[in-house]
Amino acid sequence: MKRLIPALMLLFCSGSVVHAANPASTQGESLRGLLAAQTLTSLGRMSEHTSVIQTMRAFRELAVFRAFPRAHPEGNTRSRTNTSGSDLALPDSDVSGYGSQGSVAAGQGPFSGYHQSYGGFQSGVAADLNFEPILTLYYQGTVFSDSASASAYMVQGLAGTGSTTTPTDCSGTVGVPCQIEAFNTSGGKLDLYNVAQINYCVIETGYQGDPTLINQHSADVTKVLADTFLVGITEAKQACASSSPNPVPQPQPQTTVTAAPSPTPIPTAVSQPSISISGLALVHTVKKKVKATTTLKLKEAGLFVATYQAENAGTLTPSATVTILKGSKEIANGDMKSDKFSDGTTYFYAAFKFKLKTSVGHLTARVTVTLGSAMDARSLNFKLKKK
Fold first, then answer.
1. Residues with Cβ < 8 Å from 159, sequence gap 6 or more?
2. Predicted confidence (pLDDT) at residue 64 exceeds the cutoff of 90
3. What is the pLDDT of residue 258?
4. DSSP class of residue 91?
């Protein structure tokens, strides 16, 4: 196993149906138009990347896009005493099978690298959706103490992308302060960042992916990004409609005088453990070289590798399992072992060798990591064929 570590590092370092809301079809079409225009502008600046290596996985049709959009009715204001990150979450049924969704702590989340700080941060929710080989889609909704903090966060995000193109204002399209940050390159890939402010909340979406495949399937790409963005904006318009995330109830007239209760001690905040999968791959050995693959042969050894990040573990020990599915039928499972690369990146791994001919076909590996009560999961599709 130790001999695989340098090769695995190179693989990881070099490289879900989400049913989104469409509050108004014209709004969705307009937003997609803006995104498509940014795509064309940015691809025009990618001439120096024409030799970008094609994805190592053969393109599989993204049938999930056909499910868009599913309307989420507006106007159903929720009864609440305060707003939390969970109010901005994507529907769990939409995320299931295509990625993970979890809470955001200060300084964490898919877009944390864009921001100098989380001033006024209260809570948040983030999703990481796998639409490979084309792209990975990111979503984040964050609640702040006031609109000024939310606005400052939005400005930091736009300034932190490092983009060299001019952002597109989409405020008139979605009805709230909104910007689409132009593509920039990162390791030969395309990046896009969308951000919108709804009172004291901020919704962010974006993706990173292969420029050639994004260009080939730009209609699907802009559709899934626009519709997911509109889901978050719709949820935020409902959840963040009040003037404060923690509204204070108005006092009622009192007819009698009662003794004031003793003050209740404020509990000390305790950081909760969290764990998330940052990468998942299937690797095998070809001519003594470790390579990533999406195809195995019968009786060929394959190694599933999942890099992960754990926070506030304390005395808890992370653990992981992998389940192999053929359709909805489980055909194998096992515990994964833990190790780390020389740069400190932690990962789980498990080796499998499939011997039964009945296993031949399209399979799915479902990796689940846990840390105490915290959990994350990610799936990887691969093919098992005869020799």
1. none
2. no
3. 65
4. P
CB 16 within 8 A of CB 65: no
For tokens 């769990």, the residue is: 92
Average pLDDT over residues 45-61: 28
Q: Can you read off the two tokens belonging to residue 33?
A: 């138009």
The CATH fold of domain 274-385: Immunoglobulin-like (2.60.40)
The answer to whether the CB of 245 falls within 8 A of the CB of 83 is yes
pLDDT digits (tens, 9 = 90+) for 224-244: 888 888 888 988 998 898 777
Kindly give the pairing relationship between strand 274-286 and strand 289-292. antiparallel
Residue 230 near residue 22 (C-beta atoms within 8 A)? yes
One-character DSSP codes across 327-359: TTEEEEEEE-EEEE-TTS-EEEEEEEE---GGG
Structure tokens, 144:
């702040």
Cβ proximity of 369 and 277 under 8 Å: yes
- Yes or no: say if 294 and 350 are a contact pair by the CB < 8 Å rule: no
Give the predicted TM-score (pTM) of the model.
Answer: 0.52
pLDDT in tens, 362-371: 999 999 999 9
Tokens 């989104």 belong to 20
Q: Following DSSP, what letter does each residue of 176-221 receive, concatenated? A: SSEEEEEEEEETTEEEEEEEEEETTEEEEEEEEE-HHHHHHTHHHH
154-to-74, 158, 196, 221 alpha-carbon distances in Å = 24, 6, 7, 23
Query: How large is the average pLDDT for residues 114-140?
Result: 86
Instruction: Report residue 376 as tokens.
Output: 């994350």
Separation of alpha carbons 86 and 117, rounded Å: 21
379: confidence class by pLDDT, cuts 50, 70, 90: very high
Q: Contact at 8 Å (CB) between 192 and 183?
A: yes
Q: Where are the domains of the chain?
A: 2-72+80-239, 274-385
User: For every residue of 243-286, which 3-state class applies, written as one string?
Assistant: CCCCCCCCCCCCCCCCCCCCCCCCCCCCCCCEEEEEEEEEEEEE
More confident residue, 258 or 272: 272
